Amino acid sequence: MKGKMLIIMALFLVLTGGTVAMAHGGNQHSQSNSSMKGMDMNGKDKGMDMKGMDMNGKDKNMDMSGSKSNDDMQGMNMGGDEPVKETPPNVKVLGTYGVVNLAFILIGIWNKWFRRKDGSYGNTK
Amino acid sequence: MAIPSNKYNTEKIQVDGAKQPFNLLSIPTIKKFIQSRWYPGIFQWAAFVVFSVIVYELVAGTVDPTRNIGTSLTWVLWWPLVPVFFVLIGRFWCAICPFGKLSDIIRKTIGSERPTPRFLRKYGLWIIDLFFIAITYSDHIWGIVESPRGSGYLLLLLVTMVVGTSVFYERRTFCKTLCFLGGLSGNYSRSGALELRGTPDICKTCKTQSCFKGSDKAEGCPMFQFVRTMDSSADCNLCGNCVKSCPNNSIRISPRVPTSELWGTKNPKIEHSFLAAVIMGIVFVQNITMISIWQDILKAISFVTGTENYTINFTVAYIISMLIPILLLLGTAKLAVLTGGSISKVKQNFVRFGYAIIPLDLAGHLAHNLFHIITEGRAVWYNSAALFGANVTRGDLAFASASSVQILQYIIIVIGMVGSLYTAYRIGNKGTFKALMPYYTLMILLAVMNIYLFSMPMMHRV
Predict the structure, then answer these.
(1) What is the 3-state secondary structure (H, E, C) of A53-85?
(2) Among A71, A80, B166, B284, which residue is least crowded by beta carbons within 10 Å?
């Protein structure tokens, strides 16, 4: 009976949003908003503009352009309305991967079909 | 506190002599399916097709992470679900992993099948630990998760490593000794609710050893396991090869009490304990960098380092986050010796009780990613629909409010804490409260740190 009551209470807390249990006492909006004050995402605020934290997209880790907000997280939206600049696939990078993988495959073919025909190593099958 | 070997052996004998747990292979349909050629092939090929689409979309699709199906499927759906798999079905994911399948294909067609180099066999787990740390670090420096291209290149890097190792080496050398997820999955699977084992009475009469060597029905264990001596689920993929090969019907797959393996480990290794502590540090990093106080932390670090260079300041924060759980565990091990609660050496305590952190690791990982899957989960639906050309009106990405998720996160952390406390109690051989007090304090402290971090508003991935 006690267990059932606990489960019901836990479900109630979860489904009602359970703001009673938060460390910030449910003032999530004000906290996150205030925390982000001074965080100019264009780097105009010298006080908060740290190198490597370019919010114009150089540092993707801190690029919040993709961040979306929901009812509880409005303070964490860092101006996600800017359109994303699409870029084509990087042929150089993909080509490098392709060449390296192809080289491995050619080594494998050479090893398997020309150099070592007895299959003397490893698994039975 | 080390378990006296005589006591440990007695306990094991009692367990072995006790009633055997339920064997899933006693259900004919399941056994027939696992023995069939369709298992795990159909899951592997399904995962392989989805993986190919993901890689294509990541490297050639939109660079907007909210609209890229590759980003959604990888970081919003797969990454949060993977630890759940490990808890429920052990390392089954590794059996169907696209990298593993690719490894199998390469090895069977053009592989030299050479033995795994001694260096990898000896230091593989350390390499995995370092690789895992490096990938998390790279993610924060170059933004791999938030960048579809970055994620794509990471997957292609792993593909290259898989191809490179499979061309030369036998079985799943990559999975066993290099895959960053392999270390994580190994540690988490120890807490899992499913185990594959042999029946000792049957195995001791076996002369074929086909579970390891293979047979005409299936290859030998891809993870280099010999079922007869296997006492851990850390390296069992549940691929079913041993079920297919065993001529004596010795294999059983049974449910078990989650975390039960952690306190019965015969040969605890420092690599595992180190990784357990590191994962806790990584959970801290992942949380801290997504909450509002992160800017204050960076500011404080920049005050000390004298530079505002993000890479330098993040590196400092990262190292500190890694060191906190490692030093806490080390300190606790030392304290246990100093207070006379343990007759073992500090290193032994560190190694043995490091396993007790694993349930909290798992809880932290689950709780962190629960936020992403619940508050960003609809992105998976929107982007999947868009992939197939369906016109779906995009709305809020969340299934539930962040405050609801927080309550679930607290519950998960508390469950993890209970798991860790009980594991410490069992590793300590059900010692007195006073003797194990340092470990209990550590587990509660780690849980409180997690709960504090989860109480902060968190940013989204997509």
Answers:
(1) CCCCCCCHHHCHHHCCCCCCCHHHCCCCCCCCC
(2) A71
